[in-house]
Amino acid sequence: MKPRRSRVLGSPGPEAISAIYGTLYGVTKTTVYLDPDTVLALRRMAETEGRSQAELIRDALETYTRKVKRPKIPGVGEFDSGHTDTSQRAEDLLSRAARRGRWR
Known about the structure:
The protein has helices at 14-21, 36-49, 53-67, 90-99. The protein has 4 helices and no strands. The protein is an all-alpha fold. It has a domain at 29-70: Orthogonal Bundle (Arc Repressor Mutant).
């Protein structure tokens, strides 16, 4: 006879959770609140296209986020040394700065 594991009353076990929600790897579940008109339009669109509402939302968000400009990395492109070969001379520049105590 197997020893019985205790479980909090009312909480489903791992088997029940994966049976209810399924398993999706590589995605994160989130909640979005939509106004009634958008919900209706989304339902109709999903029905017309034969796709799920979730798929339509994912596609729309992917398209939107691709269009938005990403913020620049701070400091990149803010200074101009006037040299075009800095990356080729990086080892030499860092060595000289270290010898002078300007790089730690």
